[in-house]
Specification:
Elements (H helix, E strand, L loop, with lengths): L13 E3 L2 E3 L13 E6 L2 E3 L4 E7 L2 E5 L2 E2 H11 L2 H9 L2 E5 L12 E10 L4 E4 L8 E7 L1 H12 L6 E7 L3 H5 L4 H10 L4 E6 L2 E5 L2 E5 L3 E6 L1
Parallel strand pairs: 12-13
Antiparallel strand pairs: 1-2, 3-16, 4-11, 5-6, 5-11, 6-7, 6-10, 8-9, 8-11, 9-10, 12-16, 14-15
Helix pairs in contact: 3-5
């Protein structure tokens, strides 16, 4: 996880034994340990998948041969009032990480924020590069979806302990309680030792590749 306490660069403090530093990274080498990784992005797909047919830089110009904004407008007009309210609160973009699959569900997408809209061109700005030919789908996030996603990913697992790095955008702001993610781990896995903290960005694998995330619960589970 990325340090989150400081209001500006250089004000965070990292602790290694008795040493305190203002920059760098702190890590632990696990020799011979068996570790499973879980990255709960907390979103659910909405609408249908599209192939990105025109992109540049971090802008998606066309989805399925039509302006991206038009696809978004059609989606907003077709969903329930509840989902439309979630679109208004914060729209996200899912990029498929494994194109070999026939169908895509939650967990098959790398989630990125929608950063803005260019109404003059019909393009959507996304917080990552999207290549022509990639499959993408709009996503929404709410407390119920994030809770369900975490429980789904933990179901059937067991472990001797875990380390949890959860986004400071989750916690009380999303769930109304400060310890939701830790509580779900304890509920699903039982009374295993758990450490970690809130972060301003989490690091973990999706589809076998590591990414920097936001709004996720990134877990190392010792098995």
């Amino acid at each position: 996880g990325m340090a989150s306490a400081g209001p500006r660069p250089g004000t965070n403090r990292l602790v290694v034994d008795e040493t305190i530093v203002a920059e760098g990274a702190v890590g632990v080498l696990l020799d011979g340990a068996s570790v499973e990784t879980i990255v709960s992005q907390g979103c659910r797909p909405i609408g249908t998948p599209f192939v990105a047919t025109n992109t540049h830089d971090r802008f998606v110009d066309e989805l399925g041969g039509r302006p991206a904004i038009e696809r978004l407008q059609e989606l907003a007009a077709s969903v329930t009032d509840t989902d439309r309210a979630l679109l208004d609160q914060g729209l996200h973009f899912g990029i498929v990480v494994d194109e070999h699959k026939a169908d895509f569900t939650r967990g098959d997408f790398l989630i990125r924020n929608v950063m803005g809209l260019d109404r003059a061109t019909g393009a959507i700005a996304v917080g990552d590069a999207v290549e022509v030919g990639q499959t993408v789908q709009f996503q929404v996030r709410d407390a119920a979806s994030a809770d369900e996603d975490l429980r789904e990913l933990l179901a059937g697992r067991g472990g001797e302990g875990a380390v949890l790095f959860t986004c400071n955008g989750r916690g009380r702001g999303l769930f109304g309680t400060p310890d939701h993610d830790a509580g779900v781990i304890a509920e699903v896995l039982g009374p295993v030792p758990l450490a970690g903290g809130f972060c301003a960005g989490e690091i973990g694998p999706v589809g076998g590749r590591n990414f920097v995330h936001g709004y996720t619960a990134s877990i190392a589970l010792f098995t």
